[in-house]
Write a structure and sequence with these properties.
Elements: E1 16-20, E2 23-27, H1 34-57, H2 62-86
Pfam family, one: DUF3077
Protein name: DUF3077 domain-containing protein
Length: 94
């Protein structure tokens, strides 16, 4: 069995994030190309890194730390959703 064309793979939209009272407030959307999803998550992680650096080097920057935290949470959800696609039985090479 051959694996599907990687450029045709899209997000599943099953990965939740930002839990409040054990309920997810957000979820990754389905149907986004993995290429676009990974490009976007790269941007999110870059911004989270910059905000974390500012929070570490400047006093009274809780807002930077929290912004970085939420960007990282979103990034993890996107990456987890992409991994679920890549590890699904039809996409794993035997």
């Amino acid at each position: 069995m051959t694996a599907p064309n990687p450029s045709a793979l899209t997000t599943l939209g099953v990965t939740p994030f930002s839990f409040h009272s054990d309920q997810p407030l957000f979820r990754v959307n389905s149907g986004v190309s993995l290429h676009e999803a990974l490009h976007h998550v790269s941007d999110l992680l870059h911004l989270a890194k910059l905000l974390a650096e500012d929070a570490a080097l400047t006093q009274d920057t809780d807002r930077y730390a929290w912004a970085s935290h939420f960007l990282q949470e979103m990034s993890k959800a996107v990456i987890d959703d992409v991994v679920k696609v890549l590890e699904s039985p039809g996409n794993v090479e035997q």
